[in-house]
Amino acid sequence: MDEEHVKGIFLKVLIDTVNNRVIFTESDEDFVDVLLSFLTMPLGTIIRLIRNKPPVVRIGCLNNLYKSIENLDVHRFRTEACKTMLLYPRNAAAAQCKRLKLNIDDGEPLKYFVCKRLDCSLFEYQMLSHYRGAICGCGEDMDYEMGLCEKEPKRRGFDARDRGVFVKGLTRLIISDKLEVMPASTETKLGIMDGNTTEECNRYISEDEVSTLLKCSLASKAPLTETLWKHNLEPKLDTNAFDQGSCNESRMEEPASNVSEEIHDKPMIMGKSKTKVHYAETDDDFPEANYSLEEPASCFESNVNRGSSTSINLVISKSKNIVYYAEANEDFVDLLFSFLTVPLGYLVKKTSGITSKGCINHLYNSAEEALYLKSFEHKEMLLDPKLAHNLRHENQLLDIDEVINPQYYYAEHHECANNKILTSDKTLFPSQGVLFSMLTVTDPKSEYDEATRGGFVMGSAKFNITDNLIVTPISPVSCLSFLKERSVPFDDIEERVVRMDDEEAFCLLVASFVSESALTDAFLRDPNPEY
């Protein structure tokens, strides 16, 4: 590793010595590429990278979701790959991000596995998996790893303008303390009125500091100051940023007269809102009916025509209007776990900067207005990021697209020593003596002979979900303990069934990102009067 890479990326930092803050940094495309890559990262990757970095910053309830997946036995998932896909969600822009000068994503690169019976890849089932251990149609494990044969880039005369990942080479930019990216020579817009109170500092930013900057971008109004100067971040995401005003109507069924005895005993973080949910349960046997709260505050609109949906049963405290926990089947848990696969840029785009405690919305807006990006395709990767392939699941409720795999080919050339070829470019085949097949990329969440794309969690299962999204297999004993420890009177609890569609699912995604009482804030919280 060369000395420059060990040092990191060179920055010129302008310091306000009176207010002890960073005014802006000046850098080339390398640093801005790293910043913009934050928008492509799945939320699960962000949690994995920052959750153990002191001081710990909790990102809503996502830390609990991630920990729940870690703690859940692998046999609770449809396949072993399902757990891996959630803990290490792939980035749809991984091919670009691997070229970053500082790439903090510690996930594995894309891999390629075929059936260990190589004739099967050529003549029979012709399948390819990006995860080791998938089962081929012939019943064998797909654990024979191959490298992808790719065309060498055309050799041209060196042009520094071709450097950069998302940003054009030879670009000099300044980045404000709140992550606004601007052309150079705009210092006056940043409040520089007296050169006697400023000081220039030259330094390198390391991989570890980039991870800190990612954390600060979500939790601080001054992420550069916190990362490069003060090193004392202790905020958390602002729950007041959660806009429930556009999700006012609730579709709930009439309260049940009895109370489920299956209540979970995990601790719950209680929020400040007036209305909260105690627990939720999904069940396809509930009759369809509409129930409206006296103070409409959830994210449902009953007059919207939607496709897929799922039902959850909420247990609500009548006196406190709070959620203790929820019971749910695998459809709802699939939805919750899928939040970790969503790219950060998708959330920022859909919420117009809901993370008001941080500055990631300023970074998004800078990319939206930028003239320094390499192409329209690069801009789309940042502003409208997609799910990596195979991360969508059956009954997907979030309105997010998935990237399309290229067509892969497996070939054998019997006259070559290294006669096995995997490629997405047929022009790389030798001109003669080649047998090849078109491979089908398997869905690692499903078995070969399943007709539909499955979810992540095994079917016919029930789970407890606390208000702060701790997910565990259901346990009647722990449910009773939960009520007993909190001295909850049974006559203070009522059950309600909520039908969730795409808009409700998105409201829950937002709540899980900004709130530590996600079920309450998604389904029962009063609309914010400021919106």
Protein architecture, described:
With 531 residues, the protein is α+β, with helices and mostly antiparallel strands. It folds into three domains: 3-41 and 94-104 and 152-237 and 355-383, no CATH class; 113-145 and 401-441, no CATH class; 241-339 and 455-523, no CATH class. Helix content is 25%, strand content 17%. The chain is built from 16 helices and 18 strands. The termini are far apart.
Topology overview:
Blueprint: H1 3-7, E1 9-16, E2 21-27, H2 29-37, H3 43-50, H4 62-71, H5 80-87, H6 94-97, E3 113-114, H7 118-123, E4 127-129, E5 134-135, E6 141-142, E7 144-145, E8 173-176, E9 181-183, E10 198-205, H8 207-219, H9 223-230, E11 310-317, E12 323-329, H10 330-338, H11 344-351, H12 360-369, H13 376-383, E13 408-413, E14 420-423, E15 434-441, E16 462-466, E17 471-473, H14 476-485, E18 493-500, H15 502-514, H16 518-523
Parallel strand pairs: 4-15
Antiparallel strand pairs: 1-2, 1-10, 2-8, 3-4, 3-7, 5-6, 8-9, 11-12, 11-18, 12-16, 13-14, 13-15, 16-17
Helix pairs in contact: 8-9
InterPro entries: DUF674
Spatial sequence of strands, sheet with the most strands: 7-3-4-15-13-14
**Rg result:** 25 Å
Helix content range of the residues, please? 25-40%
Catalogue the unreliable spans: 235-306, 527-531
Treating each run of at least 4 consecutive H or I residues as one helix, how many helices? Answer: 16
Q: Count all strands and give the number.
A: 18
Overall pLDDT: 80
What is the CA–CA distance across the termini?
A: 51 Å
What structural class is derived from the secondary structure elements?
alpha+beta
Query: Major sheet: size, sense and barrel closure?
Result: 6 strands, mixed
Global outline:
flat
User: Into which percentage range does the β-strand content fall?
Assistant: 15-25%
How many domain modules? Answer: 3
